[in-house]
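Researcher: Please translate sequence to structure tokens.
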Amino acid sequence: MHAILLALLLAQNQTCSAPDLAVSARVAGVTQNDGLNHYAIAVTVRNVGSAPSGWQFVDVYKNGEKKDAKGIPSLGPGRSYTYTYGYNRSREAGNGTIDLSFQPASRSGCNTSNEGYVLTF
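Model: Translation complete:
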């Protein structure tokens, strides 16, 4: 029992020695045109690991279905990259009725922070 507990504690205290991408997103602005709201969404990807990430992607999902992907340049440890993602929806749609999930599509790394980010607007 003590050996299992010790192993779990040691695993929690290990630092990532590989790329580890964390994603966040926010609505940066909204413009209106012909019955549509155009949302400018600022998406930030940060490498919280201790190795360069190489070229990666952020996948965009709506209701569990992949809708888009954006290429992200290689990021050194502690570096970040922000891009703007555009999304259109009806002006009559209610606030807080859509969830977009931004998921790093990393094929290597620690994967401790890359659960992605869900933006509700």
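Researcher: Any highlights?
Model: The longest strand covers residues 21-33.
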